[in-house]
Amino acid sequence: MNFINTKIRIIILSCSFLVWSQMSQAQSLVSTPCGNPPPAANEWTDGDCSAVTTTGFTNSFNISACGPGSTVTIDGWGWYTGTGGGSNDITFTPSGGGDAVIQVFESTGDPCVQGFLLGECSDAAGAGGAETVTGGGTAGTVYIFIVENAASSGSISGTLCMTENPASCSDGIQNNGEAGIDCGGTCPAPCPPPTTNSQSTCPTVINSTLDTVTCNIVGTPFFNTTSGLVNFASSANTPWPSPKPTCGTTNGPNTDGAWALYDPIHGVSVASLDVNNTLGSADISVAFYQGTGCGGLVQVGCDLLLVRSGPNFILQSVNVAGINDAEPLYVFVWSSKPFSFEGQLQGFPGPAVNDDCSSALPATLDGCNVAATGASFMPPSNFSQTI
Fold this sequence. Notes:
Elements: E1 10-11, E2 20-22, E3 27-28, E4 49-54, E5 75-81, E6 88-94, E7 100-107, E8 116-122, E9 131-135, E10 142-149, E11 157-164, E12 196-197, E13 208-210, E14 230-233, E15 235-239, E16 254-264, E17 270-280, E18 284-290, E19 298-309, E20 312-315, E21 318-321, E22 329-335, E23 339-348
Parallel strand pairs: 12-14, 13-16
Antiparallel strand pairs: 1-8, 2-3, 2-4, 4-11, 5-10, 6-9, 6-11, 7-8, 7-10, 14-23, 15-16, 16-22, 17-21, 17-23, 18-19, 18-22, 19-20
């Protein structure tokens, strides 16, 4: 069950509004970007660099994010497919002192039907100056770029070059189309969701998705970031969930409590709660609920997180199994005293079907690099083969 709360600007194109003339080939290319992928005549790849000109087709989209807006009517356009390497720089250098504006987009299918997502835009160099935008490099994703004359509604000529940047997913810098530092965008590792705050009543707003651990994050700094970080801070006189938790101390009509709400995705069946910077002076307990809303919750797990034993406090691991990824996961934390901590859930799929040694499937070279986690794996006692 996926809860979506994202604002995406989508522009729908008319299917006959653009044309590009690639002068080095001495021909006019097709006048429409329609199709998935668009027509091959306008495809660009790493290292392409050609003299081009926009021609007299009237478009239904004008670059207004950084350009002059609706006064421009004549475009040139092209497209490329991400290779999974680095991002791609598209540079247009106008001839004859022209003033260009350029923008890149990410396609969501046929751009004339599904539209596209707006990307980087450039109109900073002025007359005669080269304009460069950087598009993504996600493998298999189609990216479209458009050039317009920023000074008038006439055509503009110049040289257009495309260069794929080297992958840079381990340099500690957000660059080359990454969505964060060495994550997302052109990098295989996803970025962790943003940090949010816990809620004082049964929540209706999602704090984070809860994703499964996948091969492409094993052995990376993102191994423990399959959900967003939540700052759990107790609120006094918090009402108990219904039904009341079955673990810990549940005396009185209210408690010091905090809520968070997660959206399990991609087959999450088990979750583990990791915590940092824990402050508290009494036992802290955690209950997990699922249901379609606060009025119909069912407890799916309950455990002690922080246990006070005399002068000492023991932080325990908390896990919950049997999660239904078609329903939201509600997390309720409580104590008899105020508390706070940073919490993060890590999701896992359910038990593998291939769990019988006598009929086990052979391992393949495409499996996860489990050694990168530092974990130790022991074979069954009746497994005698030497590896």
